[in-house]
Structures are given as C-alpha cells and as structure tokens.
Amino acid sequence: MPQLVILTLSLLPWIPAFLCGVTTMEEFSVLEGRSLTVPCHYEPQYASYVKYWCRGRMREFCTSLARTDDPRSVDPAVDKVSILDDPVHQVFTVTMNDLKVDDSGWYMCGMEIGGVWSADVVEYTNIKVNHGMLVVNNRLSGEEGSSVKAECEYSVRFRESEKKWCRSGDWSSCLVTGSDGSYEDTSVAISDDRTGAFTVTLKKLQMRDAGWYWCSAGQQQISVQVLVTPRPTTTTVSVTSLATPSQSVAHLPPPKPISKESWSSHSHILESLLVCSSLMLLVGLAILARKMWKLHRQDPVLRQVKEMKARLSGYSGDVGDLPDATVVFLNRDSQDVHTKCNEFVSIQ
C-alpha cells in the first residue's frame, strides 16, 4: 500500500501534461540558411503562464533558447531565436533564423507551471535542416497553350551556383542561367532571386512538353513532372427551333397599304384571268353543242332498232325458222341488229 501511494504521488506532476497540454507538429523540415516558424497551441487556462522554447529531449536537460518573460527574445528579425505569445488565439510562435545543418534535432514547446508537485506542460518536435534542394510542387499540370511554373528552392551554400533546367535523360537539353541569374527563350524562362529559390516558367505548353524534368543547383538535383492536357475542341451546333403559332403570328410583317400602282397591276391580272375563263367557257359550250347534235342525228336509227327488237320479241317461233331473215349490223359500238323478214330496209 505505501508503494502505491508513492507511485501515485510521483505521477501526479505529469497529469496536467497528459490531460490538457500544448500541441504542435511532430516534425519540421527546412533547407539550410532558411528561417522556420513553429506554432505551439495551448489551452485557455495557460494564457497567463510563461512560455519557453528549448532544445533537448528531456526537460531536465533542455537548453533554453527563448522565453516570453525575456525581453531579448521578442524580435524575429534580429534574434537567432525569438518567441511571441498570442493569448487571444492561445498560441505562441517560435522563429529560428539562418538555420544550419547542426541545428537539426529535438526541440520543446513548454509552459512553466512551477511548484514542487507540478511539472511543466510540454510538447516535443523534431527539426531537420537539410542542405540541397526542394521543389514547392513536383507535379505540374497545364492545358495546351497555357503556362506553368516550377519553384525550385536551394540551401544557402548554392546561392552562387549556376541553376539548370533539364529534361530527364537528355543532358543536351539543359538550360543554364547566365551571370545575371536568368535565362529566357520562346518556351522557357528561368529567374533566380539569389536568396534561395529560382523559378522556371514553361510558356505556351505543347503536348510534346509533357514528361519528367529536373531543376539543379550546383550538384543538387530534384525531379519535376509536367503534365499537359489537350486543348478542348469547340464544335458549332446549329439548333433549329420550330416556331409556335403565336410566335409565327407575332413575327408576321404588317400588311402593306394598297397604292394606285399595285391596284393597276392587280387589275391587269384580273382582266387576264377573266378573258381566259371566258375562252374556256366558250370551248366547253362548243363541245357540248357538238355532242348534242350527234345524239340528235342518231335518234331515228335508234327508234328503228327499238321497233325491230319489239317485233322480234313478239315472234313465238325459233329464230332459226326464219329462212329469209337478214341480219344487218348498224355499227360496231352498239352491237344492235336490224332484222328484215322477206323485205329489204334501206338505211339512209
């Protein structure tokens, strides 16, 4: 039992650190010669506490680099390490300038609690300072005809080195900056700020520009992929819309007033139509009169045929018993016959 009490008392100072502490990113990576700002977020109840930044993995052996109660650690532009607290947003920031490779290691965001039974609230982060290069975006994509930019950053030791932009696998394609730190042609422009970054602009992209490239500073290289998408083709589609009756009526031109000239031209047309109609009527009447005259000439013959038919129908014997019968065909169309028994009938 006494051992349990001692263990509980020994863990008591660390409880605040686990329950409500300070948070930051687990790891930061930066190029040599650059600056780095680390945000450390804390809970509202720690707004009035002293904050600090120290180097080391253990609090007892941590080397203090900046404290909020030290007025010499508040100017990021001058100090190697500075610290600034913002109680309104519950965050304090630490800025480290002109980093070297030797500055790599473990660091600690801490809040000083004080007291024998209370441990400080801390959070650890690992900072890696590299010499060499990095690219802001190693995968560029643009539409055919557009432009894209690659931002290549380098460490301080390569400020005076020549900068290159090359197509991967083709050393003869390398474009090198001049003494002023720039290069430009119709398709590529390179600009070096001589402080830690140079920009490569690919202009008027074409499909053949797609592929892998690398930017170089001194002996350091880093790869960049360029993707080119085809320019969209535009097709013209003609759409014919059928007008509704209301639209058709709405778009009809207004009637024109009748002038003397238009009336005279119309009267000539009417006269021509009247003459043609009269001629057609006369032709029709002439044809009708001719047919009536023909029918009138045929009436006596038709009457004689009807009389012969009546006489034949009244004869009771066989037609074959008429030895002296004569059959006369009047015409081919009517197929009527005229029979004369023992007498001759002349047809005029």
TrEMBL record:
First and last residue of the signal peptide: 1-21
A Pfam entry, by short name: V-set
InterPro entries for the chain: CD300_family_receptors, Ig-like_dom, Ig-like_dom_sf, Ig-like_fold, Ig_sub, Ig_V-set
Domain Ig-like: 2-109, 144-225
GO cellular component: plasma membrane
Subcellular location, record wording: Membrane
A GO molecular function held by the record: transmembrane signaling receptor activity
Keywords for the protein's UniProt record, in alphabetical order: Membrane, Signal, Transmembrane
Primary subcellular site in the record, as a coarse category: membrane
Keyword hit for Calcium: no
UniProt xrefs under PANTHER family: CMRF35-LIKE MOLECULE 8, POLYMERIC-IMMUNOGLOBULIN RECEPTOR
The name this protein goes by in its record: Polymeric immunoglobulin receptor
